[in-house]
Model the fold of this input.
Amino acid sequence: MLMKMKQIVATIFTSLGLKKGIEIYDFNKSNPLGGGGERVDFEFNETFDFSKLDMYQKNHFKRYQFAKDLIDKGNVCGDFACGTGYGSVIISDKASKVIGVDLDKIVIETIKFRYSSIANVSFINENLLNLTYNNLFDTIISFETVEHFKETDIERLFALFSKALKPGGKLIFSTPFMQERSEVAEKLGFHLTFFINEEKINKWLADSGFALEMIKYQNYDTHNIQTMLSKKEFIICVAKKKYA
Done:
């Protein structure tokens, strides 16, 4: 079963345009807290060493660094689909308060204990489609999230993000760029929406009360977030909630 899972993941990574010969990413090994999903786990602390992260973790970490540079000092931030919480901790150094939300109860209970010393970070177990926040956040961060929803639910998700943000609030999110729909990807079940590009994102945002402000791209070669890339594996967007 494990070998079959690795073969499926290898096929998906090939479809994303990754180099041949790259080590197959083992979600089971890197996700000891979750139930076979895409979540990766490492603890962010004073001994953290970026060079020891795998390629997947490096990409995630760079996205949170990017978000931290964009938030203002003292912001109230939501980290929606926070995973194992290290990103919430990263931005807590600049934010006045961070609320991390994730669907996995076991993960949330574990990171509540793991990061209990971080006073301005709290973690909540909830489905993002059940969010009820209203005009609370200055910034919402949601990395590698929208592709896990059916396309019919993505606009609803963005509408909930908009409701949760203060007028003029900022949404920072990322998703795989133009990932193809394939039989193996659908069997694996992580992603429900495919072929996400600038046009789709613009429409979802505009229909949900946002104005797109910035688009960047990222790949596994450098992990850096850039305006221009010949090989685009992820798209990172910054949008602002429109004033009423």
